[in-house]
Design brief:
The chain is an alpha/beta fold and 216 residues long. It contains 6 helices and 7 strands; from the N terminus they run αββαββαβαααββ. The chain is 34% helix and 25% strand. It is globular, with a radius of gyration of 16 Å. The N and C termini lie far apart (36 Å).
């Protein structure tokens, strides 16, 4: 989901079509795993057209869903009305979540940290709004683990990929950025999506959790 006020309306409409196809191809299972076991109040940044909403467990008391793109936000509102939990979709950017400090039990970043203008600023904001001991759940495509894939991704980022994919970057070291933001106890699993023999710059993915450090 493209983020920031420099929106990408063409890509937003394309994502609204591609996202459900990705879910049918297996991404829905990863979304369900991402949100499994969540409880209490949750903030989700870059919610897009609300594809995560159906997977929130009943123990979640409310979700504040942030989405700056007006087209995707309208679709997210529709998805929120059919969700199993209470979801409020708001017009905001991930760098400025409209919520007080330490107001959420969990934060969700799903396929969004690739396209925010400043990962460190966004992760710092999530750290701010999470309660001490709160968890960050993340599902992102990330930098590859082999030198060949990393070179491929860096070339893509320097050429046409960000223009084609709404400001997305494929070579970001998202796990390192999460650690820099002050999150600890990181647990991750790596996978490729879509799986296939031909290299795809956005195929390396990570799904994980991290914890906002307790005070004292």
């Amino acid at each position: 989901m493209p983020q920031g006020r420099d929106n990408h309306p063409v890509f937003a409409r394309m994502y609204a079509r591609v996202g459900p196809a990705m879910d049918r191809g297996g991404m829905a299972e990863h979304r369900a795993q991402l949100l499994s076991g969540l409880t209490g109040a949750v903030v989700e940044i870059g919610c897009g057209n609300g594809l995560n909403f159906a997977h929130y467990p009943a123990a979640v008391t409310r979700v504040l869903a942030v989405e700056p793109d007006p087209y995707l936000r309208r679709l997210a509102d529709e998805a929120a009305s059919a969700a199993p939990v209470t979801i409020e979709v708001v017009d905001a950017v991930a760098e400025r979540v409209p919520a007080p400090d330490a107001s959420f039990d969990a934060a969700v970043a799903c396929l969004v940290l690739c396209s925010v203008p400043d990962q460190d600023a966004v992760l710092g904001e999530l750290h701010r709004v999470l309660k001490p001991g709160g968890t960050l759940r993340f599902l992102e495509h990330v930098r590859g683990t082999t030198p060949g894939m990393v070179r491929f991704q860096r070339v893509a980022d320097r050429t046409v990929w960000p223009l084609m994919a709404g400001g997305c970057h494929v070579s970001r070291d998202t796990e390192a950025a999460i650690g820099r933001a002050g999150f600890t106890r990181m647990e991750v699993s790596h996978f490729h999506f879509p799986a296939g023999r031909l290299p795809h710059p956005a195929a390396p993915h990570v799904l994980g959790t991290a914890t906002r450090k307790q005070i004292g």
